[in-house]
Amino acid sequence: MKRVIKMKKEFKHLLILGVLTGIVCLAMFLPNILNHLPVIYGTDLKPEQVFFNMEFTNLMNNFFKTGTLPFYSWSMFLGTNYWASQTFYNFGDIFTWLSLLVQQMNFFDKTLLFEIIKFFVSSYSMYFLLREMKIETKIRYIGALSFAFSGWAIFFSGQLMFHSFYCFVPLYFLGVERYIKNNKKILFLFMVVLLLISNWYYFYTVSIFTTLYYTYRYYVLNKNFKNYTVNTLRLIGIYFIGILICGAIFLPTIFYMTGNDRIGINHDLFFGDKQVYIHLLASMFVPNYLYIYRGNVFETNWHVTREICLYAGSIISLIICQIFAYKDKVIKIATLVFYGVIVLIAIIPMGNAMMHGFSEPSFRWLFLVVLLNIIIACHLLNDFENIDKKIFKYVATIICILVILLVPFSTIVSGSISSLLSEYFIQWILFVICSILIGFVAFILLKKKKNFMNYLLILTVLEFSIFGAVLYTTNLDFSENGSYEFFEQVTHVLQDDDNELNNYLDYLNTDNYEQYYRVYVPHDSIYWYYSHNMSVAYQLNGLMVYFSTYSPSVNKLKELAPQIIDYSSAMIFNITDPDLMNFLNVKYALVLNENELPSKINWELVDDNYRGSIKVYENKNYRAIGTTYSKVLSSTDFIESETSVSELNNIIVCDESDVKEIEGFLGSKNSVNLENVQYGGNQLTGSVVSDDSTFMVITVPYDEGWKILINGQEVKKFEVNGGFIGIPIEKGTNNVEMYFTPQGFKLGVIMSGIGIILAGVVISLEFIREYKKRKLLINKGIKDK
């Protein structure tokens, strides 16, 4: 009976939290719903993630239809290892998989639906963590809402994969908590698997942070380090079992990402701009998502500094600083030492780089500090009687004054004091408002009148609702570009139905059915400047991409032809060089005007009225996807001699170590092509007839996952001509077969199998232990009676 009453009471608490979370969500998104406008916050939702979701849906539908695993994407740039590259974006995201159930919905409607669900998941997962920590119910509400609608959660809600990871993080630390307290391992094991599959990038960050957090919580809960080593080693064992389970996805990603040039080591000890440090402090007290993309006194023209988000509401902002007023010296000292390490990591570029995979510095990892702040603040609020009220007043006063002075101080540091009352006045007003809010919270806590916790809870809901509503209302795009109709139009300029354009192009020439060819479409006119990933929307073999985890072999092409970089970005590519276009098998161009055609190519008009206004041109000097060569040059000599990229059509360019071996294949002086080409899914086949041994360049990006057979025998592949595949060709008829399986996948499957077996052992042992424990308690109860 007691258990039923307890369950009903808990259900009531969860229902109340759901209502409070729903109120904030309604306040944030009601303007978009009323104005029938897509919710868009963040820079990458439109140019990147909508198209990655399209490709995921296409490949998964093909998998359900044919059983072909989604290893390779032909539509993403020049061809991409989809399995490994998309683990960063959506391949392991549970919400992306759920989106398959509502394919009929518009992408932005699906996004809104799942973002709201993520806010609820964030709220409940934080609630459960705080419940495990014995925090009083109303404080749990405050902590849960503070986590769900923190500055980090709002700012990165436009990065769908980041928000998906974020909402489950408290459950991971709930697993840590249960292990320290009760030696329970199952939840931790499950969350390791879920988080690693969701996003390996943030899982790495969480793993680094866990070493510090676990040590801190172990000491706080046990007041000593007795059995620390043994217990820690056990937890590490569980951690690695979780990693093993993810082997089929994680191992191919490791092999793939080690070639990405974003991975490196940063040794800087200081940020060059002092504004970074001021913003780091300010972000804890103010919802900086309201001004990051507007008049921002802390702007350094570096995207990294826009990712500084620590805000989690006025209550958390105030209470977390009261650790100095806490009377329990053991917890106080342990917490301050922990924060000392965290602050050190945050203010040193090398520390931030460490949390970012030893690449460039990044403040994205601060979501872990947000979580820590909420946990500590809720503990302090839960034990408010142990806070020195005199010190509390001093700290609260200092915070209020500091928040008001941060903007003026920053203008002085940056030398822009004259802009304080013009360009940065609105931002300053926001800081003043937040200072008043913090002061009001301090007043409520010091007066501590009846139902004071209700006032704090109401304030929390109002604060997040108002700031959220302001954000999304001011980001409403009433222009044509911001409408559902615009997105529908821009993704249907070239076709109405999937593969309609490809079928049309194939029909133009019967040879097309046995060829692989790429299509040039100008980004500015036909694609309306919308995205470099538009080829995905049209299932085209395109020439542009915006993609942070692009194929590592593209770095070789960047070395030989840096002009492929667009918008001066390391992640945006657009191939418009006519020599490269010939090399990369461009056969058709779709333009509005003839002057949009790249020069030096023998274009012939084949249709001047496609879909009413689009002109279709054919490259009469189309070059097949596979062509044999008779000359070879090292890439070093190619670059140093400043050889024109046009020579990629005539010379094999390879690493110095491969020159002599490739020269040994060059018997024929005649160039022949790969014919009878068929491709799709994870394979490409064709045939070539040569009068002597020779060497063929196949313009598919090089990846170790490709297995290449000639007449049934596997042959060695080489990375040539800027990151493409080169293979030796024998005299006579050569039947070429290429099959793609991500490097490390087979070993990863074995790892996953081992991990699942070990996990089964761990789970079984824990159930047996719990069964014996319950049986012992029952027997003890009978004896006591």
Automatic annotation (TrEMBL):
The chain crosses the membrane at residues 12-34, 112-130, 150-174, 186-216, 236-256, 276-293, 308-326, 333-351, 363-382, 394-413, 425-446, 453-472, 747-768. InterPro entries: Uncharacterised_YfhO (IPR018580). Pfam families: YfhO (PF09586). The keyword Membrane applies. It comes from the Bacteria. Keywords: Membrane, Transmembrane, Transmembrane helix. This is Uncharacterized membrane protein YfhO. It comes from Anaerorhabdus furcosa. The lineage of its organism: Bacteria, Bacillati, Bacillota, Erysipelotrichia, Erysipelotrichales.
